[in-house]
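Q: Got a minute? One more chain.
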Amino acid sequence: MITKTKAKLRHIANGLHRRLARLLPRHIPIAFKLALVMTLLLVLGMASLGLFISDNQNRLMRTQLHDFGNTMARQLAKLASEPILSENSLNLRMLTTNLGQDEKILGAGIYAHNGELLSATGIQPGPAERAFVSPGVTARPWFRHTAGGSSERLISFVAPAYYQDVRVGSVVVTLSASQMDQAAISARDAIIYATLAMTILASLLAYWLSRRLSLPIHHLMEATRAIDRGDLATRIEQRRNDEIGFLFEGFNNMAAGLLKKSQVEQVFSRYVSKNVADKVLANLDEVRLVDRPIEATVLFADITGFTAMSEKLQPSQVSELLNEYFSYISRACSLYGGVVDKFIGDCAMLAFGVLEDDTDHAFNAVSCAVLIQQLAAQLNEQRRADGRPEVHFRIGINCGAMLAGNLGSDERMEYTVVGDAVNLASRLCSEARPDQIIIRKQLFTMLQPRIVAKAEQTLPIRGKSTPVGIYSVQNIHDKDQALLQANLHKVLNSNADQRRRAVGDA
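A: Always. Here it is, folded:
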C-alpha cells in the first residue's frame, strides 16, 4: 500500500513538473535575466534600508515619548508631594490644570497614599493601570474606546510622590500612543511608496542597461546563426577595447578560419575524389589511408583520336574540351557510387567499390560506361550541328582483386588502386574501338542476366600467357533502363545549369 502511494505521488510530481516545463519559455533573453537580477538586488537593498529607517524612527519616537512622560510624571510628583501632605486642594488643582493645558498630555491625576483621587484633569486610567508597583516611574499602556467605536492606545506614566523620603501619594500622566503609531504608519507607507517608485524606475533603468550590456551578445548570436546557415563571410565590425572586443576579434578570426577551411576543402575536393577528400578531412590527425586488398572494378575511358584532334585546336580549346567531358564523366561516376581515381591526359580512370562497400560495383561500373557512351552520343549530335569535331570514347572495364592505398612520398601522395586487374582494364581500354565497351568473359558471365553484350575474338594481352576472351557491351537490360535514363537527364541538366551560371557570372 505504501509503495503504491509513493508511486502515485511520484507520478503526480512528474506531471506537475511537465506542466511547469511547458509553461516556462524555452528561451529567456539574457537582458531580462540581468534586469531581473539587478531589480531584485535593488529592491532588497531598498526594502532593507526602509526597514532599518522605519525601525530607527519608531524606536526614536518611542524613546522621545517615554522620556517626555517620565519627565512630566517626575516633575508633577515633585511639585505635588507637599500639597498632598498638607491637603492643599487648590494647589493640587492648579498643578493638574496647568499640566492639562499641554496638547501632548491627555490627562493628569494626583492620588493620595490610599489611592483616593485628589485632583485630576482629562483622561484617567483605571485602578489597574495606575497601581503603584515600583519606586520609579512606571509606563502602563492601555486602550480607550472612543465614541466612534474605535480604540485609542494610551500610555499612563505612574510616579510615586515622596516627601522627605516618605511616600505620600502618586501621580499619573497620560499620553496618547496612537499619534506615535499613526506617525509610524505614515512613515512606513511613505517608505513603501518610495520603494515601489524606486523599484519601477530601477526596473526600467535595469532593463535599459541590460539591453545595452547584452546588445553585443545579440550581435554575436546573430553572427553565429549566420555561420550556422553557411554564411562564412559574416564578420562583426564593432571595435571595442574590453573583454567583449576580444571575444569579437576571436569570433572574426574563427570565421575567417572556417572560410579558409571551406575554401581549402572545396579546392581539395576538385583535385581528388570527393569521397577520398571526405575521408582525409575527417581524420586529419592520421592522413594516411590504410592500404588494404579489396575486390573492386576499374573503368578506363579514353578519347580516341585525341592527338590528331588536339593538333587542330588551340590549347585553350583543348583544355575546354577536356574539362567539359571530364565534368560529365565525374557526375556519371558519382551517380553510380564510383570515385574518379585520376585523369591521365585524355583518359579517365574510375574505380567502383573502393572506399565504400558495394556488392554491386561491377554492374555499377558497366552502367556508368553505358551512360558515358550515351552522353557522348547525344553531345556529338550537337557538335555535328555546330560543325565541331565529334568526340568518341573507348572504354575498358575489369573486375578483380587489387590493392587500394597511397602511392607517393611523404610530400606528395595520391590514393589509388593497383594490381593486375587494374593493368588489364587499361589494356582492354587500349584494345577497344571507338564507342565500344569491352569486358572480360568472366565479368560477362557474372553480369549476364543484367547486361546485353556480344562475344568478341580473344585477344592476346601483353604480359598474359593465354589470350583473354572479351565481350562488347551494347546496353543494360530493360529493368535498369529507367534509372539509366534518369541519370542521363540529370547529368545533362546539371551541366546545362552550370553553363548558364557561368554565363550569368560573366
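A: The radius of gyration is 53 Å.
Q: Perfect, thanks.
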